[in-house]
Amino acid sequence: MDAGRTPRPAPRRALRRKPSLRVATVIVCVVAGFMMATSALASRGNDLRPDRTTELASLVQAEADRVDQLGRLASGLRAEVDALSARGQGAGLPDLGAAAERADSVAVTGPAVTVVLTDAPASVQPAGVDPDLLVVHQQDIQAVVNALWAAGAEAMTIQGQRVSSRTGIKCVGNTVVLHGVPYAPPYRITAIGDVPALERGLRESDYLRLYRTYVDAYRLGYEVSRQARVEMPAYAGPAEFEFARVPR
Q1: What CA–CA distance (Å, rounded) separates 117 from 135?
Q2: How far apart are CA 149 and CA 165, in angstroms?
Q3: Measured between alpha carbons, how far is 81 from 89 in angstroms, rounded to an integer?
């Protein structure tokens, strides 16, 4: 470039890029606005992000509170039934006490055996062993319950709730649900009856023999204790089967 010569102006083609950039910006803004409007119409006011839904723990607690409220209502109705039954007996109707005891609808007391089941410690991670085998499952609880019934248990509770023929035990995630209420380990199963016979039934159960091998090898929790006298509440679960059907 010669000294004193006026610098060459930029080519027109370069100058035309600015209007094009502005047009592109406008188009992007229009498209973004259209997308946001479409999303708002699709959601109809709902939150489209799944991570903002109610936490499972809150939902479980709400259901547990609802079950507790219904339990109190059932207790009140049961008290009315007891009062009417007593009035009926005074009028010469058959004694309903024995039937109520068979239906687990009255509180009972007596000597008992308690079994406590717990998961293996989190620090126990043996190589080649499925971690799912190191936690307590519903079939483990059911094995204890079945062994105690077979050994002549007269009454039973799980986590303090009275067990009857209408009781179902279900695994939901890492909890066990009983009468609609979720429980975490440790799980306490208590049975009233002939204590030596109950203990013998636990020892002779084939399933529990296998369970105890995991107790010895991987520290899965299993404790058996005696109680000279325990008091068990009346059954407070559902009064009817919801899904059972009479076989034809």
Answers
A1: 9
A2: 11
A3: 12
Lookup: tokens for 143: 């094995």
What are the φ and ψ backbone dihedral angles of 179, each rounded to 5 degrees?
A: 55, 35
Contact 113, 148 (CB under 8 A): yes
Is pTM, for the whole model, over 0.85? no
- The 3-state secondary structure of the chain reads CCCCCCCCCCCHHHHCHHHHHHHHHHHHHHHHHHHHHHHHHHHCCCCCCHHHCCCHHHHHHHHHHHHHHHHHHHHHHHHHHHHHHHHHHHCCCCCCHHHHHHCCCCCEEEEEEEEEEECCCCCCCCCCCCHHHHCCCHHHHHHHHHHHHHCCCCEEEECCEECCCCCCEEEECCEEEECCEEECCCEEEEEECCHHHHHHHHHHCHHHHHHHHHHHHHCCEEEEEEEEEEEECCCCCCCCCCCCCCCC
Place of tokens 């009479």: 246
CA distances from 231 to 145, 157, 161, 193 (A): 18, 10, 11, 12
Task: Kindly list the averaged pLDDT for each block of 10 residues, start to end, along the chain of length 248.
Answer: 40 42 61 62 50 62 78 76 66 52 71 96 86 89 95 93 81 79 91 96 96 92 96 75 62
CA distance 217 to 184: 23
Structure tokens at 70: 């219904």
For the chain, the residue count is: 248
Neighbours of 219 (CB within 10 A): 15
Cβ atoms of 205 and 143 closer than 8 Å: yes
